[in-house]
Amino acid sequence: MPSWPGKVPAGSSCGELVCFADMLGTVASLLGEKLPDDAGEDSFDILPLLLGEKPALPIRNGLVHVNYGSYTVAIRVGDWKLILPQRVYRVSDGTLVPDHLVETQGKGPTEKFQLYDLSADPGETTNLFTQEKAKARELFDALKADVARGRSRL
């Protein structure tokens, strides 16, 4: 629960999709600095959210996650989250490689596609990839577009 005496009431919450990358934009804002266009491409200033302001539109529609340590690539769009199989996909020079859904032969949960509806399953206990292939393709296409653009922020 966030708390900043005199600024953020203890126990307040916000339903916006934010991530650690937003710290750059937020700290810059706190310092009164404007980031150059080529810095913090995926970073939003979330200070207004912390102060309880409600945006007219969501600050972001989706969020790309790339973990080079575990070779995991994922995207969240709204309440849906797609996690690609580990060690199968990578981001290289503005391209997602491979550029299509690849069926894997692995048996563990980290060796297959994972798709979750976080509104119904916030604990990510039910993998819907097999039942919701169209939704998985939609998120995969959004991921490719974000990677090609070099940022998930429009």
What is the string of SSEs from the N terminus onward? Answer: HHEEEEEEH
Termini gap: 29 Å
Calculate the mean pLDDT score and round it: 83
Unreliable stretches, pLDDT < 50, 5 or more residues? none
Spatial sequence of strands, sheet with the most strands: 1-2-3-6
Going by CATH, the architecture of the largest domain would be 2-Layer Sandwich
General form:
globular
Kindly provide the name of the CATH class of the largest domain: Alpha Beta
Strand tally, please?
6
Strand proportion, as a percent range, falls in 15-25%
Radius of gyration, rounded?
17 Å
Helicity range of the residues?
Answer: 10-25%
Number of separate helices: 3
Helix vs. strand class: alpha+beta
CATH topology name of the largest domain, in short, is: Arylsulfatase, C-terminal domain
Give the biggest sheet. 4 strands, antiparallel
Number of domains: 2
Reconstruct the topology from this structure.
Layout: H1 22-30, H2 47-50, E1 62-67, E2 72-77, E3 80-83, E4 90-92, E5 95-97, E6 114-117, H3 133-149
Antiparallel strand pairs: 1-2, 2-3, 3-6, 4-5
